[in-house]
Here is the input.
Amino acid sequence: MKLFLALLTSLTLSAAASAAQPLLSPSELQSRLQDTTVRVIDIRDPQSYAAGHIAGAVNAPYGQWRGPANNPGELPALPKLTALVQSLGLTPASHAVVVSSGADTTDFGGSARVYWTLKVLGLKELSILNGGVKAWAQAGLPQGTQAVKVAASSFSPKIDASLIATKEDLVQHIKSGDATLVDARPAAFFLGQTRHASAKLPGTLQGAVHLDNGKWFTPGTSSFAATDQARQVAASSPLNPAQETVSFCNTGHWAATNWFAMSEVLGQKNVKLYPGSMVDWTQDANALPMDNVPGRIEQLAIDAKLWAGKTFN
Here is the structure.
């Protein structure tokens, strides 16, 4: 474990020296708001944004960064993402700070997924407001209600495929066993006791290990833990920083938190995200390899629970 922690510390220090802090506290963000390169991106719904937001923040609701309803984790097409980042006035010189509501740990996944998408598009200076608008308000910092409009940019991003694991990549990784596949979902999903409504089967990728995304947070809060705590979480988990790592979940939301923790906070260089995750995997026409798939009777019981929840709730 000491060697593991030493490697993680070295990776973290080298990452911190080369880019913006991946996490900003409310006070740290406030001190940067006068910097004209900083662009605060509020990913909450328009109603929440209109009720109060950080000065200068532009609104780009989380749904704009997601795929279609039948496969929401799918990365949107490049023309759609290009139009979105241009409308936000983003350029390679921008320091983009992603802000969510801070309601809970799952909410953080939205920030992490948008952060990952911006990095995929080639932006380098990126941060997340730790604790979101909730932490900002708790710190007593001001909010405005005036909608913010910015001049569009002419930025033409290109996809950085080194951050993305495709379904085809995972098929080969499972055959060769040359990567650590990390399931970020709560245990019930990993164990095949439930599934996402758009997934065809419960279970997990064959050979995957489990690291619940909620472990990265200070207990009882929606704030990402300090770096030293994150190192301890990693050291006590089935991770191998020397091996390529792929983070996945149901739709690439919870998985973005694990990716953010390993890649951005701990500085691991070989971490990818499988954006479509288990929804994409189980919708394939072929029977792709999985573990923890329950029997047919158990699957029918899960189907009934999901139907009842959708129908009566």
The chain is about 35% helix and 10% strand. Residues 189 and 195 are 6 Å apart (CA to CA). Residues 12-18 have pLDDT under 50 and may be disordered. The longest strand covers residues 38-42.
